[in-house]
Structures are given as structure tokens and as C-alpha cells.
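Why this split exists: single-chain examples teach little about how molecules sit against one another. For that reason, every record in the complexes split bundles all components of an assembly together and asks for one structure covering all of them. Below is a record exactly as it appears in the raw files.
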Amino acid sequence: MVSVTSIFQNIVSGLNTSALLMVAALGLVIIFGLMGVINMAHGELMMVGAYVTYYTTYVLHIPFLFALIFAFLVTGLIGSLIEMLIIKSLYSKPTETLLATFAVSLVLERVVYLIFGADTKNVPMPIPGNITIAGITIPNYNVFAIAFGILILLLTVFIFQKTSFGKKMRATTQNRSMAECLGIKTSRVDTWTFAYGSGLAGIAGALIAPTISVSTGMGSPYLTESFMTVVVGGVQSVIGTAFGAGIVGEARTIIGGLSSAVTAKILVFLIIIVLIRIKPQGLFAKERR
Amino acid sequence: MEKTLKKIPINRWIDMLAFVFILIFPLLGFKQFRVDFMCQVVAYIIFAISLDLLWGYTGLMSLGHAVLFGMGGYMIGICFQIQDGAPAFMTREGINEVPSFFLPLKNETVAFIVGLLLPTAFAVFLGFFIFKSKVSGVFFTIITLALAQIAKDFVANQQAYTNGFNGLQGILRYPVSGEPLSKIAYYYVVAAVAILVYVFCIFLTRSRFGKVAVSIRENESRVKFLGYNPAKFKIVIFAISGFLAGLSGLMYAPAMSSITIEEISVTASTFVLICIAVGGRGNLTGAIVGTLLIQWAKVLLSEQCANYWQLILGVILLLIIFFMPQGIIGKIINVQYSIKTRKSKEKILESEENISSVSLNNKQGDEEYGNSFTGG
Amino acid sequence: MATALLEVKNLSVEFSGFKAINNVNLKIEEGEVRVLIGPNGAGKSTIADLITGKTKPTAGSVFFKGVDITGKSPDEIAGKYKIGRKFQGPNVFDNMTVYRNIEIALSGYTTVWKSLFYRRTTEIKKKIKALLEQIRLYEIRDVMATELSHGQRQWLEIGMVIAQNPSLIILDEPTAGMTAEETFKTGEMIKELLGEHTVIVVEHDMDFVRQIAQTVTVLHQGRVLAEGTFEEIEKDPQVIQVYLKDD
């Protein structure tokens, strides 16, 4: 019989999973949900973020917080290059975009491999230790990760709702030609949006890095999970994605705690398939005509 | 006779050339391991054709097609492994007798049929949930991606039943009970199956059913208003595609002598996607030529530069997307079509002016030109 | 007293509070050619959407041959109930030839089973040939639909709708984007092709309406404003104020 404590333990661990997933999925919902671009290189961008973190903290001995910023900048830069060189020319050709971003993922993976080699890297834990409350143990780092994740969420919502860039971005998403008529340089908005989404992927990778072994192939499972999260939450909704991350992350952790990680993934997958059938626009999507 | 020959589109000639090449390959004096590899490639061609039906013709991009391929391969793999009771990977985990649900697979006919029907049934199951829902095509892609990820994890995890990461080794060529076919005999068996599959798909894609599938890709809502139910068609296509994918796995595993989780991974699924993208979608020829090119390129490149052939592959893919998005065969078809279009443009002008006597020398003829498209 | 072929009863549809169609009633008799006119946004295409199943109404019902078809799916309405629709802006299959476009629209072969075993019999060939000649596209039957001019694509789509052998045809702005000469030819085409069919035409072009109309229904802001022959509504003061005087 599973104890109540261990269930709560799972729920709390799940919060960490959800927070990390949320940051990753936020990057994806911006690019996929709002720009309509299927970015197959999303997982590899996270991987780059993880490697940047490794290099910054382990090789250059610079504090972890800076690694987060560098990860954001580097992947943001790579993202803007991808957008300008590739995505822009393939606008309105979704199949080609998907194949092209997949090609990019192959290239990114190999380039990182050729630079860093095949062996897995370990990123030193920046905040070691645990705290224990009411019989439930939480690693200190998890608390940080959750807090940081919420910070990123709030920052993203703020940017989209309150800044002029956010307004331009929403206008471009909703009605491109109209936005252009109003003088918005939609081309530049696209680049910045893609860069921001990529940067978030980098941060997600950086946050995950201390908790896993960093390897060039680490990105792939995160790609899938991010997509699942976005699908559950509602493809165009930032808040929905946050909730989606919560649901998927918790479901995975709790079910994983009760049985196995693989069973958890299978069950979550089945739930999502059924969900698509019942509510195809996701749980939190806005009503559209 | 002259007129009929002229009517055959250029890519069918390429098909015939490719098959002739495949048939004479073992006689060309290459080393045995090259011929072995070619046998795998021919089996893989069946796999590529199955995906072309689903993606090239109907526009449903699957990132998990290798899972259906693997279902076929694993069924025959298990069949071989349990011929002499529980294999080592089971006994190591404490399972000393073959589990009851595996026992039927001891019979190779049963294993073969299960290898065909399991992916078919799975495709129907999945299709029922996805195609009957109102979600757009990209969700199918995402779901198949998730499927690929999960399947790989699942098989890897079930060490006791699937030998996890090591996969199933020691798969010999058919028949299981009795003397296995010689390598050369098996080569021609696989080639024959490939040709049969090809002929079947020609029939399918030229039929009204095939035209509907392409129309669903081009303009799904219009098709609905003509009275067609796209969901039903998609489910049937997916089922046929799954069946053929399973068949290709059943042919491939004995040629490779093994089947591992690498063959069902996302990488494997995207590899076949690349073959078709480079070769050309929606005309069957692209699947054949693309597979031959990319499979051989991979093997030869990885012998030369083991560490960065994937990089080269990625770059090739990018180049194709930018300069030849319809693939190599698609480009050839388009070029031939635009040469012939000059004549028909004159006809249109004449028709618009309502001139009644128009002499038609060089009729257009074959609709297959329409299957090479740019983007989508 | 036979029931009307199509009966629209108190039909309304609302999108986020905006009533696009407001309590519309229509009765179309068999063999009629009814034209729906009205300013942009009046709801003409929306009514077509509601009848053919593309959109579901929020109130009211649609009866076809006495059967309630409200809210049924588009493929059922097209296949089982045989209501054919030509869309605004030519909506044909670019990947196929003119001939194949007509062929794929042919009624009776729309299930998976039938489409697998369909064969182009002599009888079918005759049917298609006759249709192609009537829409004046027989000569270029083997040309890809992409190569056609705009007007020819419109004709092709009309031909496709006829091929469906429908009991009711809805033509949504069939002359949009056509030259005056093409418009006139289309009018004649419709008059000769559709002798025995029932047609609803949604239109804008007044000359065209005058050429083909028997009864005209005028829509304005989602409601029926007036109904009658062309001469009658031409003189109706409300219609003149709202629509005909617009310049």
C-alpha cells in the first residue's frame, strides 16, 4: 500500500518536473502556437543551453546564474539565425519548415558533438542539499527551479501583454497583413519572437542540466514532451501551456511513482489521445469561429 | 503501341530501371557484405513506399512509422528466439519458460501474420482517434512523434521480453523450421515482394481511391462537400500503410539478422522521411530512388567519416528543401511536364476563343504529373 | 400539397454574440431558381454554410425533402442528401486534370469500397464527355486545373457540382471575378444546364441576377428584407434604400 506521504512526495517532485517542462513548453508554444512554426530543433536548442551551462560553470567557473543568462543569449542568437536564414524563406510551407528544422536539429547535434565529444558531461549542482518539511524532502535546487520557472512565466506574460513588442507580436499573429498596414515590421517581429522562444528553450536546458547527464542526444524526449504539453494546454495559450505543463508533469511523476516511468508515459499518451478526440483545441483554448 | 509507350510517364521508366538494377545487383561482382546490405535496402524500399502512400500521397506526415516497421520485425525476431524454449535474455531475468502470449509466435506463419496484422490494427486504432477528431494534420505528426518515443522506451524497458537495448539477434532467413534459404535466394524473394508491393501500390494510387487520397491532401474540405468522408479514407490508407510497413519489417529483420530499438526510434522514422523528401513525394519513384541513394550514401559516408555523416545528411536535406523541394524525381517530372505544357497552353487560348476544330497531336495523357507538387 | 424541397425555419446563428443570421425563413420549391442577394455581410454565404453543414446553427432548423438535416456533417449532406455546393472563388483540385476533376465529383462512388473498385466504363465516359461539352471545357479536358483561367475554373467547379447529380445546387457567387462576356456565358450555361435542377444562387452582379432569376430573396444584416421577382424587388423602396442605391 502506498503511503500518503509518498504520494505527497510525488506531487511535490512533480512540481519540479512541471516547472522545467513549463519553461521548455513556453518556448515551444511561442514558436508553434503563435508563429505556426513546427520547430523540430527545439530539443536540440535545449541541449545547446545545457552545454552552454556546462561550459560556463564547469570550464569557465562562472556562477550558475550567469550560465542561465548566457544560455538564453546563445540559443536566442542561434534561434534568430535559424529564423532569418531558414524559416523566413519557408514561410507558409509547413512541411518544408518541419523538414528544415529537423535538418537543423541534425546539424546542431553533430556540431555540438564535434566540439564537445561523445562523453556525457556533468554540470555541477549549483544549490546542493535538501530541505524537509512535514516528512517531505525537496531538493533546494528544485525550489529554485520552480521559483525561476514561475518568474519566466510571469516575465513572458508581461512581455506579451504589457510591452509594445508584445502588442506587435500579437497583432502579427492575429492578422499579419493588417499589422503590416499599420506599419509593424512583421519580419523583424518574427525574428525576435523566434529568438525569444529559442532563448526560453536554452534556459530550460540550462535549468535541467544540473539534474541530468548532459549528452548531445538529450534533447529528443523533451521535444516530444513539450509538444504534448502544448497540445494539452491549448496550442495558442501561454497560460494554458502553464497548466498543461502542470498536468503532464504531475501525471508523469505521480504515475511514475506508483508504477514505472514508461507506464507513466504510456498512460499520459493515451490520455492525450483521448483528450484530442474530446476537446481538440486543448483545455484552455479561446473559442474561435 | 507507340502512343501507349509515349503515355507512360518518365518516372515509371526510372522505376523499371531501378528494379532491373536491383535484380542484377548480386551478379555484378560486389563483395558479399555489399549484397547483404542491398538486400536490406530492398526491404527498406517497401517501408519507404508504405510511408509514401501515407505522406506523399495523402499528406499525413508520420514521425513514428518505424514503430509499425518494428512490429513486423520484432514478431519474426521473437519467433526465431523462442524456437528452442526460453532464450538467454529471458532466463537471465528469471523467466524459464516462454510466456503464453509469445507461444503462438513459435509458428512462423502465425508470427508472420501477426507481424502484418498488429501494425495494421494499431494504425486503425490510432487513426480512429486522430482522424475522426477535428484536429489538423500537424497533430497527427506530433502524436506519431510521441508514439515513437514511447515505443522505444517501452521496448527498451521490457528487458525480459525484448532483450531491451541489445535487441533480438540471430534472426535467420525463412523458413524458420528447416533449412533457411540461401542469401541469394532470399535476396530474390525480397526483391519479388518489393515488386509485388510496387505493383499493388501502382494499382492503388491510379485508382479512384488513390485520387481521393491525393485530393484529401490538396483540399480536404472540398472533398467533403463532394460527399467523401475523409476520416474513413485516412484510416484505410493508414491501415494499408501500416500493413506494408509491417511487411517490410518482416522482410528486413532476416536480412539484417537482427532487430533492435534503433530500428524503431525517432531517428529511424525520420531517416525514411528524409529518403522520401530527397527522392520525391507522392510518386512512388521518389521513395525507391531516394532510399537507394540515401541508404547507400549513409553507408559509404559513415565508412569515410564516421563522426559527421549525419551532419552531411542534414546539409543535403537543407539543400534539397531550398533548391528542390519536390525532390529529385519530382523535379524531373516537373521539367518534363513544363515542356509538354507549352502545347496545352496554346490549346487553352484556342478554346477560350471558341475555335471548334483543334487538332490534338500530343495528348497530355497521364495524370500522374499532378502527383509531384511543390510544398504543402 | 407537396412539401417544399428545402425549408429553412427560424434559422439563426450567433458568433460570440454577433447574430450573423437572425430568424430566417425560406421555402424553395423543386425546380426553382432562387437568387439570394444582399450587401456584403448580409449573411448570404453563411446561409449556404448552414444548409450544407459547414456551420451549425444556434437556433432553428433546415428541412430537406421533409427530413431534418440541421447540423449534419458536410459529407453526409453532400453524399446522402445530395446537396451540391459551388464555393465562392473557384475551389477545384489543382493537382488533377479537368477530366479527373469532373470524374472525382461523380456521384455514387464516394465510399471507400466503391472508390477502390471504380472503373471508367463507357457509360461513365459518355456522361463525363457530355458534361464537359456543356461547360465548354471538353477540348482542354487533359489540362491541369492550375493552367485554366479564372473563369474556366469557375465553370469547372460548376461542372463538378452538376456531376454530383444533386437534388439541390447552391452556387455561391459563380461569376465572381469573371469578365462581362464570361458572366453572360455563365448565365446561359446555368439556364440550359439547370432546367431540371433546383438552384439557389448567391450573387452580387445585378445584370447576372436579372438574366437568370425567377424569385429573388434579399438579405440584409442577417434577415430577409424582401422577396419576389426581380422586377418587384427592383422597385421595392426598402431594397432600394439599403442595397440598390449603394454606390
